[in-house]
Amino acid sequence: MKKLLALAALAFASVSTQAAANECELTVTTGDKMAYDQTSLSVPASCSEVTLTLEHQGSMPVTSMGHNWVLSETSNLQDIAMKGAGAGPNNDYLPQGDDRILAHTKLIGGGESTTITFSTEGLKGKDLTYFCSFPGHWTVMKGKFTIE
Ligand SMILES: [Cu+2]
């Protein structure tokens, strides 16, 4: 039985070397707390693009419990978040024109949803973290993003 399972796993691995489009699509939900529903995300290395949807299932407005999804190298997270707080809500709490921001959604409030598509070019092998840049959220509202 174990051998059969191993064979099945092997067969599955060989047919999935070419990523299906839906493996490159991620949905992250959030709500009226400073948290995403997932503390890590990954996509297969065969994804040339990732489509990510952020859904805010809470009811609080963007001004008090806004969330976004921002991707950067882990080492740049804190500085981007600090500068983002200074950039203010009209800039989605992100420093404008900062190319250390690898991808980001807009800031949304309860009941809203937003989708972005970004290229994985140059991201493979880097230590990446996603976070919310709403002031104060980034310290707890974050997770590892891996391209495997
Ligand atoms: Cu947030």
Structure description:
- This protein has 148 residues and is α/β, with parallel strands linked by helices.
- 20% of the residues lie in helices and 28% in strands.
- It is globular, with a radius of gyration of 17 Å.
- Bound molecules: copper (II) ion.
- The site of copper (II) ion has 6 residues, from loops.
Question: Which features characterize this protein?
Answer:
Immunoglobulin-like; three-stranded mixed sheet; globular; 20% helix; 148 residues; five-stranded mixed sheet; alpha/beta
Provide a short characterization of the protein structure:
This protein is an alpha/beta fold and 148 residues long. It has helices at residues 2-15, 62-65, 77-87; strands at 25-30, 40-43, 49-56, 70-73, 103-104, 113-119, 128-131, 142-147.
* Largest sheet properties: 5 strands, mixed
Bound molecules: copper (II) ion
CATH superfamily, by name, is: Cupredoxins -  blue copper proteins
Topology order in helix (H) and strand (E) letters:
HEEEHEHEEEE
Counted up, domains total 1
Stretches with pLDDT under 50, minimum 5 residues: none
What is the residue-averaged pLDDT? 91
Strand content: 25-35%
Tally of helical runs: 3
- In CATH, the architecture is Sandwich
Q: Which class best fits the helix and strand makeup?
A: alpha/beta
CA gyration radius, whole angstroms: 17 Å
Using the coordinates shown, work out and report the CATH topology: Immunoglobulin-like
Count of beta strands = 8
Helix content: 10-25%
So what's the overall shape?
A: globular
The N- and C-terminal alpha carbons lie at a distance of 29 Å
In CATH, what is the class? Mainly Beta
